[in-house]
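Reopening this one. Same input as before:
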Amino acid sequence: HIFETLSKKRKELKNYVGKSKLLVVDVWASWCGPCKKEIPHLKKVYDDYKDKGLSIVSVSIDDSDKKWKEAVDKFEMPWEQLRTSSNEEMKSFMGDYLIGGIPHMIIIDKEGIIVYAGSALRAEKGQLQNLLDEKLK
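Same output, byte for byte:
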């Protein structure tokens, strides 16, 4: 899947896999209340685990470039931001990764193996931290 960065570069998830012990792919949108509620907790997780081998990339399914960029600016997420480049790409991405709703996380290890995918894991509740503590020993 091809995504756009904030600077309109085209990237794929494979550009990020293997550069850290674990990659968290945070799937969200500017209009998603639970997604926005999770961001401050994700920022804390990022600060706490980035030196232990964690990286994060967010993939927005926003259809509005303007609203996406406004949300990214507002929440000041320090990791790479991607957006599906079209409605068709968003549907294809969500279908291929079995994403039924957002927020959704995909956690990929250094070898490219998905170790978690779903919407139940929350940094707000400490669940993400528990998994990271186990995988980043």
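So the earlier flakiness isn't reproducible anymore. For the record, Residues 108 and 114 are 4 Å apart (CA to CA).
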